[in-house]
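Researcher: Here's a chain I'd like modeled. Treat it as a single chain, no partners, no ligands.
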Amino acid sequence: MKDKTYNNADSFAISFDEEWQKVDCNDTAQKIDKVIEILSEHPFVISNFDNAKNIAEFRIYSLKKFK
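Model: Modeled as a single isolated chain. Structure tokens:
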């Protein structure tokens, strides 16, 4: 999906979910940080870093998307 990234939360969430599956880390908070680091060039992370982190945490902790 890297060829089709947009500066919005939906595009970030899709990219985040894809990368989350690839990262091997047992500590959830560290894994969130690693995935965001991988996506550091995503337009939404560049322009809305705090919101990107909040969305990532929401997807993992509130939606329990990957548990």
